[in-house]
Amino acid sequence: MTDREDCTDPGGVPFAELDPALLRAQRTSLKWTRYPADVLPLFVAEMDFTVAPVVQQALIDRVLASDTGYLDGPGPLAPAFADFARDRWGWEVPHDRVHLATDVATGIVEALRLFRPEGGRIALPTPAYPSFFEMLDEVPFEVVEIPLVSTGTAPAEGSESPEVRLDLATIERLFASDPGIDAFLLCSPHNPHGLIHSAEELAELARLAAQYDVFVVSDEIHAPLTHVGQTFTPFAPLAAAAGALSVTTTSASKGWNLAGTKCSVIVAADERANETLRRLPPEVACRSSILGLHASVAAFVDGRDWLDRAIAQFEANDRLLAQLVRDRLPGVRRTRPRAGYLAWLDFRDAGLGDDPSRRILFDARVALNNGASFGEGGSGHARLNLACAPDTIREAVDRIARILPATAPKKAI
Question: Counting Cβ atoms within 10 Å, is residue 96 exposed (0-12), middle (13-18) or buried (19+)?
Fold first, then answer.
């Protein structure tokens, strides 16, 4: 499938109906209200695609039944998630190890409060999702950034960035230091790179965490969006095998565009972790949305075909972006994602300064995420959302191309 062969989103809605001018008149999330009407919003991780019909119907059914009350546990979400995890990743999840939380941010914060109530030092591979820094302000931890390292592998093409991986040598050194590391926040797949950590890397991280008594929270919210031909490895089974204390936080919200429905799960890696999760305050489940729960059940059980079509479109959009970057954006490099719908762009040789997103917003009227907000290693970069109609990507690149300095390196002919 190319972006020209399929002219509809995963739910069959024509791309013409996903014109940003039309969506701005229909939708009220911050994606469409934060910036003036002339700005193309490609920053926040929300899809332009319509919600899967099976999820829409699940929400309608709950409202028609006046089923809008409070929750005290995951109920049908536990088997729905467990079946999805088994079928997609080979992860056997006992239903009683699945706990409910409002969203993944809540799951991370509440898990840290339970497992490391005294706080300490938490390690975070960077550049990473900016909201990690904001949510960690809620707990008594010092954030220790561990930048991803280049593999030295030559990119497939001149406009593609070299691959990066977890810096396991530095992770081990910091785990063994005095003071050491009390907790580790793993983003898997990694945002913003769309990086999938290998099973070998994750097994070594689990071994080190067990050896040095480091509690690992694995945020796996982008895992359902693993691209075709890639293998995602859940961290929990490896943690359990190594004897590492760990929980996984995840949700249907990124895979099926359900962020505002406010429902996620915290999954214990083993029974030792589960004993602690049973002490979660009742409010953690109660503050979750019953609509989000039923939307998530519908997504995990009946929304798999929609998800597969969405992934195919993200891959097509990434191929389109790769061509456009190569042909229209001299000096810009793109990281090829292996999961998700976020593109990480390196503008350091494009002549737009340390904060290219600011120049792009004010001069090109395209809203991207500022790479510096992702922590160490992010300066000079920007993140772009690919979950939109192909013509939206073309328009964004056209606008950016018009503001690049004439001194930027030119594409070889």
Answer: middle
Q: How far is CA 55 from the centre of its chain?
A: 20
Rounded to the nearest angstrom, the gap between the alpha carbon of residue 207 and the centroid of all alpha carbons in its chain is: 25
Contact 334, 342 (CB under 8 A): no
DSSP labels for 198-216?
PHHHHHHHHHHHHHTT-EE
Cα distance between residue 83 and residue 97, in whole Å:
13
| Residue pair 288/262 in contact by the 8 Å Cβ criterion | yes
Q: For residue 217, which of 188, 242, 174 has the smallest C-alpha distance?
A: 188
Answer for the pair 112, 139: CB distance below 8 angstroms, yes or no. Answer: yes
pLDDT digits (tens, 9 = 90+) for 60-111: 999 999 999 999 999 999 999 999 999 999 999 999 999 999 999 999 999 9
Q: Are 234 and 248 in contact (CB under 8 A)?
A: yes
Question: Beta-strand (E) ranges in 297-370?
Answer: 333-335, 342-346, 366-367, 369-370
Backbone angles phi, psi at 232, to 5 degrees: -90, 135
